């Protein structure tokens, strides 16, 4: 049975939309109808290449192993919240972290600077150490299983079907080795030997991909790549720079000579900047600190509206955000625009052109490139959940999320996309409270003009307010 938005899993988890697809199943964004918490739901499918006997064994071990993973509590590890059986496959309920996969970032941005990769490596090493301390192995470290959260940290997700030592032994005895060959340690593939050093090999292969922009074994065929991995001979380095000795040490064929976790950590710290926590927004843009605090949402109002059924009733987060301070007077060079029914007013640059249609205000700059919109926000419940659900249905060309967060003044969503006429465009949506009513303030501009236009946006947003009594 196919899963779709709106489905209710185990009489509790309402599916909002797809998040990702992996080798062992699909991941969906969902909301807990009891608490309103946003979560990620993984439906654990199985490779078709497995025999019926092996499929039964893996299906048996998935729930047991997921409970082992739930013992891990660390900011660089996606938490397992629950394991349940519903329908034809196990489901794993996981913590939802707004993010993009490391693989997507590599595909969009190309090779990453060594210092940034070193920061990611330190986060992943911390995650693996926490897992090992809980007597769990990951066994599938690769770029698609690494999330770069909106707050900048790297988070390890999608532990394999067996990470505890009994689980690993049971699957190995049945000759079941799951994982991506170009990231799996050769001793697992060829010798059926598995321990913490296997995760270190995969960490090295993942960091190689991040800094070089390609997998470490780009041979013509999978067999050639496997033989290269067995020989411990990754492709030549071109961009790794100071990371080269670390990657070479992590991908040594003989586990006994492989670089240890302690030595890896020491070397990565030398390469990574002293201040490690850098958000994606700061890393990718020249936005001022004030703008980074005030905003972080995007998506223009031509996106479809989201109206969850009343039964979803997630806990409100946007409504609990602090209100934006209102200016005492009209800013110089601006004029007031008042909603026809006197619901609200907002300042707009004096030379911008307003239009009002279908309950939505649209203000356009003289050059026609920068546009602001204001409309009522009537979606009940958690605005972050609603905005994320809209994102899952987006068909914008070249879409790339910057972040979706609760924000200091209401939920915000920010991203870029490729406009067929304007080229690379950046957009923002912020949910703002005015009295007992919420509004979506939208802003879009050519990406190249974003920083220059931010002072106008920062001036406009605090002016959205009730119409003064006459």
From TrEMBL:
Record's keyword terms, sorted: ATP-binding, Kinase, Nucleotide-binding, Serine/threonine-protein kinase, Transferase
A matching Pfam family: Pkinase
Record-listed E.C. numbers: 2.7.11.1
Superkingdom of origin: Bacteria
Residue ranges of every copy of the Protein kinase domain listed in the record: 13-271
GO molecular function per UniProt: protein serine/threonine kinase activity
InterPro entries given in the database record: Kinase-like_dom_sf, NEK_Ser/Thr_kinase, Prot_kinase_dom, Ser/Thr_kinase_AS
Region (Disordered), start-end ranges: 304-324
PROSITE patterns: PROTEIN_KINASE_DOM, PROTEIN_KINASE_ST
Residue stretches spanning the membrane: none
Name used for this protein in its record: non-specific serine/threonine protein kinase
